[in-house]
């Protein structure tokens, strides 16, 4: 569904180094680490993070548009995982699912049918998309190295790990 896929981020929460995670498959919302400024509907998960059905104060919705030349209006769906860098300045959002584009005969166009890692700068609080990395296949796995100099993405059915 073009135009409905995206990420919901809170300016202040991103600055605090919080993370967003998947709720429903078409947007990310309010999964936070540590203390939270959110209201009463918040629940603490076994991981120590908390979740709420409402967006945090100052939250904004950003479409996950990978900038495909032949499909400028395409928005990626299935944002399944996210991670914040150890220094709290970069947010990575991983898609995994069926981000496919088809030709007039219904055949998949490989160069326009990938999964994506969206790279956001969150150093100033307001998320700014800096880069989109195409990955042929993924699954839920994404993690930064301990020193934050690189990250890893699972290769899904390809049984690989991208660095």
Describe this entry's structure for a reader.
By secondary structure, the chain is mainly beta. The chain has one helix and 13 strands; from the N terminus they run βαββββββββββββ. The protein has one domain (6-162). 3% of the residues lie in helices and 33% in strands. The longest helix is centred in the N-terminal third of the chain and has 5 residues, at 11-15. It is globular. Mean pLDDT is 78; it is low at 11-39.
Please report the number of helical segments: 1
Spell the H/E element sequence.
EHEEEEEEEEEEEE
The low-confidence parts are 11-39
How much of the sequence lies in strands comes to 25-35%
Structure class: mainly beta
Mean pLDDT: 78
Keywords summarizing the entry:
163 residues; single chain; mainly beta; 3% helix; 4-stranded antiparallel sheet; globular
Secondary structure blueprint with pairings:
Elements: E1 6-10, H1 11-15, E2 22-23, E3 27-28, E4 43-44, E5 50-51, E6 59-63, E7 79-84, E8 90-95, E9 115-121, E10 128-135, E11 142-144, E12 151-154, E13 161-162
Antiparallel strand pairs: 1-6, 2-3, 4-5, 7-8, 8-9, 9-10, 11-12, 12-13
Brief digest:
By secondary structure, the chain is mainly β. It has one helix and 13 strands. It is 3% helix and 33% strand.
């Amino acid at each position: 569904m073009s135009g409905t896929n995206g990420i919901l981020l809170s300016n202040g929460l991103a600055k605090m180094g919080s993370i967003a995670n998947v709720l429903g498959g078409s947007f990310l919302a309010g999964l936070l680490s540590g203390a939270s400024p959110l209201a009463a509907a918040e629940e603490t998960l076994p991981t120590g993070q908390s979740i709420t059905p409402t967006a945090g104060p100052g939250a904004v919705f950003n479409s996950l548009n990978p900038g495909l030349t032949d499909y400028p209006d395409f928005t990626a769906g299935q944002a399944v995982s996210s991670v914040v860098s150890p220094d709290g300045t970069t947010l990575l959002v991983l898609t995994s699912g069926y981000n496919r584009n088809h030709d007039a005969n219904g055949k998949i166009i490989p160069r326009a049918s990938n999964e994506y890692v969206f790279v956001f700068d969150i150093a100033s609080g307001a998320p700014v998309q800096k880069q989109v990395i195409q990955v042929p296949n993924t699954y839920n796995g994404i993690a930064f190295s301990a020193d934050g100099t690189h990250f890893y993405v699972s290769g899904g059915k390809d049984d690989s790990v991208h660095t």
